[in-house]
Amino acid sequence: MNKTTIALLLSICLSSLQAQLNNTIRPQDVTIARDVWGVPHIFAQTDAEVIYGLAWAHCEDNFELIQHAYAATRRRAGEILGKDGAIFDVMQFMCEAETIIQEQYETAFSDDFKKIIRAYTQGMNDYAKAHPKELLLKKLFPINEQDVVTGYLLGNIIMTGAAFDIGKIFENKIHNYEKHATQPTGSNGFSISRKRMQENKTVFVSNSHQPLEGVLAWYEVHVNSEEGYNMLGGTFTLGMTPFVGTNKNLGWTHTVNHPDMTDVYKLKMHPKKKLTYWYDGKWEKLEVKKMKIKVNVIGIKFPVTLTFYKSKHGMAMKNKHGYYALRFSANKHIAAAEQWYKMGKANNFEEFKTALQMQQIPCFNVVYADKEDNIYNFCNGLIPNNRAIGYNWHGVMRGDTSENVWQPTFYKMEELPQLLNPASGYIFNSNNTPFTATKAGENINASDYPNELMGYLEKETNRSIRFMEIMDSIGDRKMTYEEFKKIKFDIQYAQNTFYTYNIENIDILPNLDPNKYPDLADVLDLVKNWDRSTDKEDENAAVFSVAFTYIIDELANRSALLDANTLPEEVFVNALRKAKKYVLKYYGTIKVPFGKMHIHRREKGSDLSFPSSGMPENIAAMAYTRDKKEKGKLRTYSGESYILIAQYDDNGVAALETINCFGSSNRPESPHYTDQMEMYVNRQLKKMTLNKEEILKTAKEIYHPGERVQK
C-alpha cells in the first residue's frame, strides 16, 4: 500500500472519528434521490442522517420560507414581513418559549431524539453556510436546537387556536368571544376497511386542507433509514419529520379539531392604582414585560417596543376593553416533534397507540389505517382535567379568582373520544364532531364526555353531511377503489343544505325572498335552481362563489373567521349584490362557466394557470380570493393541497398515490415549481413508492448534500 493511499485512508478515518466525537453528520453518508417530480427521497444508515438530509433537501426547495419561519422563532419575522410578520413575533413572546424550553429541554426529549434535533439543526446550518447569498437576515443563522423546538411551539399555538385569541385581543374583538371554530376549508381523513372494498385492500386517505402557499403549505418528502424509519408524507417549513403520511405498515392523517385548550380571563383592575388587579381577595401587581422588535415598512426597519404583562393566569395584554390574560395548553408540553417521529416509526397499532400516549401533540384528530385492517379515529387534545365546574369555559372567564385557573394536568389519552374498527367498515373526519365518525348507530356518545369542561365540538360541516349522505346511498355494498376516489374528489354540496358550523345560517342565502329583494330576483332564481355542483363547466355556481368571498371578508372584519357564526340577513343580501355587480362587470352575464372565472395559479413567479373546480365545504374543498393580477378572476389560495392515498394488504403498502397542488419546489426557476398543477386540477394522482431499489433505479438525480449532480 503506497503512502498516498495510507494518508487518504487515515484522513477518512480521522474525519469519521472527528464526526463521531462532535456528534455531527457527514454529508457523504446521506443520499438524496429526486424522482421525476423532484420529490426528495432521503437514504442513510441512521435516522439522524436522513433527518439531516430532509433539512438539506427542504432548504434546496424552500429556503426563503424556512427563513421566514425561523425568523419568527427569534422574534424577527417583522423584519422580513412587516406588520404581518410581527404578529408571529408577538406569539413567540406570548408563549414564553425561551423560559419554557430552557426549563424542559433536557428532560422532555430522549437522548436518541436529541440526536435527531441536532442533525436537523446541523442540516439547516450547513445549507445556510454554503449559500450565504440566499440569506435574508444577518445573524439569523446558525440556528440552535431551541429554535427548532420553538418552531413547534409556534405551530401548536396556531393550530390550537391560541393565536386567534391573541389576535382578537389585539383587534379589540375579544368581547365578542365564543369558542368552537374552523377555517372555511378544513381537512378530511378517511379510512376504509377492506371488507368495504372490492379489491380487498384497506384504503387510507390523507386529505389536509391548508394554505396552498406559505409557511403552512405542505412539502412532500420520503425518509428511509437502515434503522427502520421508512415514511412518505408531508411536512411544513419547520418540520423535522413528516406530520402526515404512511410508512410500510400504517398511515395517519390529521384534521384540526376544536376541544377547549385555551382560556381568556378579563382582569378586574384597580380604579386608581395602575397595573393592579384583584385576585383571590387581594390586589396583585402585573409584571411588566417589554418586547422589542423591528418592523419592516417600505424597506426600512423601524424599532418597536410592545408592552405585555404577566399575571397569575399567564401572559396578559391590554386593549380598549381592558386587560386580558391567556392560559393555553399548547406551550405546556414541548416534545411534539418526538411524538410525530415515534408515530412514524410505529410498526403496528399497539406501537402507534403507545406513541399517542405521549400526549405531546396538543390537538388534532388522528385518522388511521394499517395493513392489519385496523381503522381508527382519535380526537386528540391536551385538555386540562382540573377545570372547576360551574364556569362558562366557552366564553371570557372572570380573572379575579384562582378557582378557574387550571393546572397543567390533562385528560389521559384513554379518556378522550376515539373509535376503533366500527362494524360499518369506514371512518371519517371532516373537522366535524368526533361523535359522528362512521355510520349512524355505531358512533361513540357525546354524553360520555363532560363537554362543559372538555369543549368538544358537537356540530357538523357540510363536508361531513355530504360524506354521510353518499355513504348512506351506497349502503352496505362494497365499493371499487375508483368509485371511492370519486367520493374523495366530490365537488357537490349536500342535497338539502349548505350548512357548516362557522356560517350556521348560510341557508338564508338561497332562500331570500325575491319579492323583498327584486334587484336580486335573477340571481336568487339562479342559485335556487343550481344543482349544487361546483364543476368547472357549471354556469350557476359562480355568483354564489363570489358572494362567499364577500361573506368571508365580513367574517374577517369581525375577527370571526374561525367562530361559529349566525349572520344577519343583510350580510347575505349585501354579499349577493356585490357578487352580482362583480360578475356583470367582468363577464356581462350572471351565468358564467365556473372554471372561466376560477383559476388555479401561483400567487407570483409563474403565469401558468388552469380552470379550477370546487368551493369551500365541498369534500374536495377549495377557497378563492379575488385576484389582483387578473381582474375578474378568483384565484385558489387554500383547500385541497397535499393528498395521499395508500392501499394496504397483509404485506403492507400495496399501492401509493399522491399529488401536491403546485410542485415540490418553491423556487420559480425550478421545473418543479408548477409541474403537478395540471394533474392536480384534473383530480389525478401520481404513483409513489417506498421501495428503495425502485426509487434509485428511476431517480432523475442522485447526490449527497452539497454535491447536487444530474444523473
Helix content: 25-40%
Strand numbers in spatial order across the main sheet: 19-17-16-8-7-6-5-2-1-27
- Which whole number gives the mean pLDDT? 92
The proportion of strand residues reads 15-25%
Distance between the termini: 33 Å
Oligomer: single chain
Would you mind describing this structure in some detail?
- The chain contains 19 helices and 27 strands.
- The protein is α+β, with helices and mostly antiparallel strands and 711 residues long.
- The strands form 4 sheets. The chain has a 10-stranded mixed sheet, sandwiched between helices. Strands 3, 4, 20, 21, 22, 23, 24, 25 and 26 form a 9-stranded mixed sheet that branches.
- A hairpin with a 2-residue loop joins β14 and β15.
- The longest helix is centred in the first third of the chain and has 27 residues.
- About 4% of the residues have low confidence.
Task: Please tag this protein with its features.
19 helices; alpha+beta; globular; 711 residues; nine-stranded mixed sheet; single chain
Task: Give a quick summary of the entry.
The chain is an alpha+beta fold and 711 residues long. It is built from 19 helices and 27 strands.
Lay out the secondary structure:
Layout: H1 3-22, E1 30-34, E2 40-44, H2 47-73, H3 77-81, H4 83-94, H5 97-108, H6 111-130, H7 145-160, H8 162-170, E3 188-192, E4 202-211, E5 219-225, E6 230-235, E7 244-247, E8 250-255, E9 262-266, E10 276-279, E11 282-285, E12 287-297, E13 300-310, E14 315-319, E15 322-328, H9 336-345, H10 349-356, E16 365-370, E17 375-379, E18 397-398, E19 418-420, E20 426-429, H11 451-454, H12 462-474, H13 481-488, H14 521-528, H15 542-557, H16 569-587, H17 594-597, E21 598-601, E22 609-611, E23 622-626, E24 634-649, E25 652-659, H18 677-681, E26 686-687, H19 692-698, E27 701-703
Helix pairs in contact: 2-4, 2-6, 2-7, 5-7, 9-10, 15-16
